[in-house]
Amino acid sequence: MTPLRFRSVDEPLVSVVMVTHGNWPLVRRSLEALLERTDSVYELIVVDSASPDETAQRLSDEVEGASLHLSGENVGFGGGSNLGAEQARGRFLCFLNSDAMVEPGWLDPLVEVLQEDPTAGAAIPMFLNPDGTIQEAGSVIDSVGWPHALGAGQSANAFAHRFRREIDYGSAACLLIERQTFWEAGGFDPVYGIGYFEDVDLCFKLKERGLRTMYEPRSRVVHERHGSGTSDQARRRMETNRAVFYRRWSERLSRRPNLVDLPTSSPRLVAARDAEVVDRILVMDDRVPFHDRGSGDPRMAKMLHELVELWPDARITLAAADGSEAERYAEPLLARGIEVVAPPVDWQQWFERRMFHYSVAIVSRGQNLARFGGLLQMTQPQALRAFDTEALTFRRLERMVGFLEDSAEIARVRAEATTMRQAELGALHESEVVFAVSDEEAEFIDEVATGKPTFVLPNWIQTVAKPTRFQERRDVLFFGGFLAGPGSPNEDALLHLVREVMPFLWEREHELRLHVVGADPTPAVQALHGERVNVVGYVEDTAEWLARTRVHVSPMRFGSGIKLKLLDTIAAGQPFVTTAVGAEGLPLRSLRSVLVAEEPAELAELTYALYTDEQLWQRAQRGLLDIARSSFDRGTFRRTLAEAMSHLGVLPPEGVFDGVPLDLVAARG
């Protein structure tokens, strides 16, 4: 048999500790998987606990580069793990069962959890059955101390079990913990003998010390279970040790849910999972946010990330009405610990299974009031509600009517605007709190819903450190996504630009090109592509185009709220020319006369002036960067969000208002 050669590491990051007790073929498979699928940042320590077969001899003969400890008696999992941990040199200990087969890429996500989260005491992977289904996605502990595996038998690809979260308990079949933390918690308690419940006890001891056990599903391990014993033996030991565990932790267990019928009750399993979570926040939006496209999605993506960063102990759930491209865009949210729910899903069943579950409900965009409002009222009447306008839809539709020519289309849009007006104005009155995207919108809300606590939450932006200079740029840009399809504000603005504005510019600058950057170009947009108009479409990183072009031209004729594309333009240090509709919510002040016009000839004149006058261009760039730093910074966004959430019963995080005068920490009303 080919020897298993483990590399010697002088300063290992991780010490992998494996306890063996027979079943050499399974032990070898586990070691082979570890060797083949793990970067050489670890040392291997194997403790053989008096194997009844040839395992000890095979370890000596076939495993090279590992530290091997042969015990003359069966010291069990806990005792053997403690022996191995005593020899460890790594910063982290990874306890790995001899019947556990690691999958590629398993280690880095677990290490990342403990390195990035100071409240994390231990990290465990998603455990899979040999057939690829979930064996355990973390576990909950009931009122008498029994663990109940989450996700058992379900698909490993389902969003429901792919988000990082705190758990009551994670099996030490694969468990990563800092070596110092392990010993400070007392290691595995020998009171549990040969095995079972010593890992549950460890997780409870960590919690007592203020440290969380984290489930990290990006790490995956196949677990054979009972590889060194029988199921009957395991059951008897579990029953004995459960009684020991219960006597030790009875006070805390008394606060746990009674889950006798849990295996047949999915709704109670979700309730048990979140039993100790105080703040349960449900966010409803059109889709899993397309963070790199537009239509308000980048702002929602940032809001979700801020929610989980400001309140890491909360349960944040995103309900996405449309499941399109959910797989592509959900991963960053899942990795941050945000639960994602997206079609295919029976929404009525889903909400009913979470009856009375959430403390806060945030509904974003008017159309989602119709989608989720009735279900919210029926299943979550206790939840305090926020309406996130994401720019009031009915105002955009009412403005759009003036630019339509077809009578049938005018009638349709007017009817839609009337319906949305009723829904959105109703939401303004019925919600406890309103999130607006601009001061102008907040002022309008105060007129129609006087006294309603309203908080301005535009997208925050990070300015570039060294924006590209005037002479390093050329051509003009139209930047904006077309996700809303034909007839959308961006499509209309681009067609208006090409047909009415660019001809004035081409008369003066014959070689001038217009570059169109934005995802999901419509057929009408694609038809513009030619010698003078370069339809680029979607790009993964817009920074290159914002740095190489000189002026962004966006002659929007209808729409509402702050235009995220202009915020991105500002952050990149690129001056723009737009209309009053496009400039809504931007505190341009003295720059307004340089950047804002309505008529095509006037828009062209402002664009030409910026394109050819370096001093004017530099003045506009400096002024826009100053606006970005003073009005659209992340700190202001976080403080405003924390203040808004406090009106919904969510305590502000410690330190979020440090250095802010008390008279500025007040709700708008």
Structural features, described:
The protein has 669 residues and is of the alpha/beta class. It has 23 helices and 26 strands. The longest helix is centred in the middle third of the chain and has 24 residues.
Portion in beta strands: 15-25%
Low-pLDDT sequence parts: 664-669
- Give the termini separation: 77 Å
- Biggest sheet architecture: 10 strands, mixed
Shape: elongated
Structural class: alpha/beta
Total helices: the number is 23
Rg, please?
A: 30 Å
Average pLDDT reading: 92
Short description:
By secondary structure, the protein is of the alpha/beta class.
Observed structural traits:
39% helix, alpha/beta, single chain, ten-stranded mixed sheet, 669 residues
